[in-house]
Amino acid sequence: MNGEVSGRPKREEKFHDEWAVRTDIISIDVVKSNESITAPELRYITQQLGLLRGKKLIDVGCGLGEASVYFAIKGADVTSIDISESMLQAVKELAARNHVSIKTYKSNIEELFFGEKFDIVYAGNLFHHVNVESALKEFTLLLKEDGVLVSWDPLAYNPFINLYRFIARKVRTLDEHPLTMRDISLFRKYFPHVKVRYFWLSSLLIFIYMVIFQLRNPNKERFWKVVVDEGDKWAWLYKPLEAFDTFILKLFPFLGFLCWNVVIVARKNRSHNYVY
Cα(201)–Cα(1) distance, rounded to whole angstroms? Predict the structure, then answer.
């Protein structure tokens, strides 16, 4: 078991290096990646963060850098961290193409040694790749007293998504572990003010449509990336489904555990007046 855990960073690094090398950075539209109709998690996070100009933000597990660069465009002072050197090279290229400056560091979650504090820790699709509690401990140390952690990750419970995960093994790492309700409860152990919101319930029909009617192969395309890139094409279907999801989750909030993704906004300072 210990061998499996210790080998995880190397496996993750290799997987993400290969992903970065195969990606055409020129094709990445940073604004679309964060503002697409089919990127509700990012739109919600941007709304929660408010004005970013002058804020110090660290993007942990930054991947190709779509979020890092977007936040820099919005005026944040961005530091990007990833376990993959190839991903960080992609971040630098993407930043240069969008005329922003970003500091990059190669590190894994167990080695985040920083002598500075941040207003915002952003962790997009990170927690399901790492030990959740260890990451939370590190992030409390990175944040200023009035700082905020924003994250989004997939959930473990939807049977359709679990079938997709079983099939789409070539676009996923061996060590992924979608979040459980216990994982989410850990945020409240380390942060006094936590807000949780769920996304993609009936709107998951889009992925069924992709497979059944478009005959698309989930091992050849990362559906969660494709659906954002093709957001305009899916608006006709996504908009009514998103409206239905908003209604049904307000009526029956316990159905949140069947959603695909969860966004968590965790703040260190309970006394601050937050607007939602």
Answer: 35
Does the pTM surpass 0.70? The reply is yes
Q: How far is CA 243 from the centre of its chain?
A: 22
Assigned token pair, 132: 């959740």
Residue 6, φ and ψ in degrees, nearest 5: -70, -25
Structure confidence by residue, pLDDT tens digits, 182-223 = 999 999 999 999 999 999 999 999 999 999 999 999 999 999
Domain spans of the chain, in order of start: 2-158+175-200+260-267
> Which CATH class for the 2-158+175-200+260-267 domain?
alpha beta
Of 264, 235, 225, the C-alpha closest to 122 is 264
